[in-house]
Amino acid sequence: MIPPPLPPNLESRRSQMFPVLDARDHERMQRFGEVRHFRDGECLAAAGQPSPGMFVLSQGRVALSRRDGLGHSIPIVEEGPGQFLGEVAQLSGRPSLVDAHAVGEVEALVIPPHRLRALLVAEADLGERIMRALILRRVGLLETGAGGPVLVGPPEGAGRVRLEGFLSRNGHPYLALDPAQGGEAASLLERYSPRAEELPLVVCPDGSVLKNPLESTLARALGLLPEGAFETRYDVTVVGAGPAGLSTAVYAASEGLRVLVLDQRAFGGQAGASSRIENYLGFPTGITGQALTARAYVQAQKFGVEMAIPAEVASLRCAASGEPLALELTDGRRVRTRTVVVASGARYRRPALANLGQFEGRGVFYWASPIEARMCDGEEVVLVGGGNSAGQAAVFLAGHARRVRVLVRGRELAASMSSYLVERLAASPRIELVMETEVVALAGSDERGLRSVRWRHQPSGREEEHDVRHLFLFIGADPATEWLAGCGVALDAKGFVRTGAALGEEPLQTEAWEATGRAPFTFETSLPGVFAIGDARSDSVKRVGTAIGEGSAVVAQLHACLTSAAAAERRGAERPPRALRQAPSHPHVRHQGASGRMPPHGARAMKKVCPHLEVTEHHRTAPIHPSGHGCMECLKDGGDWVHLRMCLTCGHVGCCDDSPSRHATRHFHASSHPVIKSFEPGEDWAWCFVDEQLLERIPTFPGESPPVHYSAPMSAP
Fold first, then answer.
1. Taking every annotated instance into account, which residue ranges of this chain make up the domain UBP-type (predicted)?
2. Which of 77, 217, 626, 701 has its CA at 20 to 30 Å from residue 99's CA atom?
């Protein structure tokens, strides 16, 4: 079979999109999957249906084809032994975007999503080749619209523009058809007879038809949004999937924390809508905001971050001391989490124009993507704003529009815009700068949308009105923090979140802070366990680089917060009488009796023994030695060890608060054995950090010895 041509920019990379793995590669992958057999013609994957994961072929061939809701099926490629089936959707278990059928008898290694992620981390060089292929395949699907819904409606219709923006910003393929061009699009309108407000029609891959759906409705129909309740108690829940939030997610998940990211619209935030970022370190030719944040989005999924987009947070609920925080979503669901990171950013300010809402999405826009640029071809547009985002958008639109008028309230751009952008705007023959000017009125109709814009020159009071169908607003920034109202998180006068030293003393005079026994961390808010980063944080520098830096820096504070919370929980737990506690058996070890404490970080015990715990009965360990630093309670005791835990994979020994979940989850990525055993005298349990299950009354393993083989006391870092 001769493979059909790929899009021109991908044809030269065909060998990277569809690599052939050798016998050694296949052997390395065996432990991550299960061998299955398929009959001739049997379906391995169906577009729009959940996929079991990635298929690695050892015998036979599989034909891949792309299909849409209109019934079209187009061959993509036929793969054989040594090749694998899958794209980035398989990292998170989302529905397949293509059909796959066996050609003859097929034998394949099926690697489920969580084991695929483990493979990518454990086998770095092999994982790099697989990851590159998965990403390139998604790029190919995006460029052809394969596997996604079909939008049927007028190109400038507000509903179509809105849904196109949602799908493109979330990296999901789609096709858009104009019924005015006739053909199948016109036939669909005749068949369903939608009213104007019901456009566009959305034909999903399974053939179902939606009429101008909400983004959340479409996301559920496509399998992009998790269904049902959030059963997991997360270590970290990040609200906002912009650069700051994605940075936190990547670093936290890569260090073993269980992370959920919520965003009400799309990943990328304001930066994701930027046409080109040229002053971000490491990209000398520049990079689009969408490309930069899409890489972070895929990277987060590689490390196991769970994404719920679109999912809007209604409120934050504070629980009793020792209990998890709770986020209430607008759809009625609840997320329980040990820490919250506020990365919800800021939104562009809406000017005080009486009829602004009438034209939003129908001529008035707050971002400039290729979708909006397409509508501006050969026309005159107006853009309002004097910051970097405004400058980047103006340069981008100038490549499509006949003329771009940039209205700026200030007297000069240098105070608010990077010099390279100022120079580029001044050099463009299609860009006209209009200083000390603001928009005062809009005119148009419901049927035709925006038709004219009036603005006023502030020093002279002179007003002008021009026929303009497209107005782009990039002015100011209002914090997206209204969901924090009433929860105890202190805001500044503008609504941005106060953190660290900016809190002062008054917000900290609470029982919650007294229970922690510490001061807030740099990015921590007035509510223990709730942090704020990026544009939502008071006095932060509103730049992509700063947001990413804060997102990575807060992870160390999250670990410290979880450690502090676990220590506070132990201090508050009931303890046996001092007379029943064991006496020290070594000058550098202070033993302490058990009191039925929960495993580290307050994880909940479950009765069923998971497969990881079943193997502990046969595990052998050597005499233990300390491998890391202890918790605050250890430090208070002059450096003596109090609480000891051993990793049953490598023998690492550390304090119970020395990030055991991070350490064990790293091993889970590599060996699927994420178990920690307690060596604290009087305690006898092992804990699986992946399955959240407990095994009590562990048999004494041959070769174990009490924790007395220390050569020196622990010292504070």
1. 608-714
2. 217
